[in-house]
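Illustration: Glycosyltransferase.
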Amino acid sequence: MRITVIIPTYNPNINRIHQTIAALKDQTFPHHMWELIIVDNNSSTNFTTDIDISWHPNRYIIKEDKQGLTYARLAGFKIAKGDIIIMVDDDNILEENYLVNVYEIFNSYPFLGAAGGKSLPIYESPAPVWLFQFESSLAIRNLGEEKIINKWENHFPYSSPIGAGMALRTVALERYISRIEIRGNNIITDRNATTLSSGGDNDIVIDILKSGWQVGYFPNLELKHIIPTERMKVPYLARLNHDTNKSWIILLQSHGINPWKKIPPQSVLPRKIKAWFTYKAWKNKGNYIKWKGACGMYEALSI
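Result:
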């Protein structure tokens, strides 16, 4: 059983991606038993000259011109040779036994299709108190010290793996990849240069669950997620909450599991105005960010 690590990236911060690569270099899992694929998602900078992966015997840098995290992941999936794929963001620092633990988990749970664990923050500057209520939007999670395993029950399990550090059994991706190829450009592209939409990782998880596989949370899978100062500011978080909520509804609708009723397009503006007062969006930063999230939901429900 081999492992493939895929790092999709777009104009990465060199300092952060250096930390990501250094943590991979320090993995206790032997280098010859896994491969490293970096996917340049049409970056405007030539960052590849600033990183060193010569230490790895099975390393590849490929380019995907279609903008969007989903396209970059797919490009990596198509050339991956591993039985297990681990998706690593360019600001993730994996704990040194991460690959070993993934290997052991998938050997121990033959019906497991996807696994994830803890994603703990490294704030590049002091985090304001009000920020912590939005940590899940920043791909920060800690569900405790007990493992949780789920199967498909016609809804999205709260403990499902998130994209950062998600490990996938390659054979369990078949349904997802086939569906994406059939739909062509009508897919959830996830984040790109112009939007902070998300849901691509959840789309993968739902297809894996619908295929009959299990997904799980394992606390011994731990990584650090670097949170830069600009992602702790109100304009970014407001946009993030808006785009994330909107794409979440669209994702649920695409799988027929959206619990909210559709709304008429002409009702969107009145609902936004009412929500402004319901959330008291003028009172503080947190309320304003939540209101922007509600606006994203209304827009999605009107489509």
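Reading the tokens back as a structure: The chain has eight helices and nine strands.
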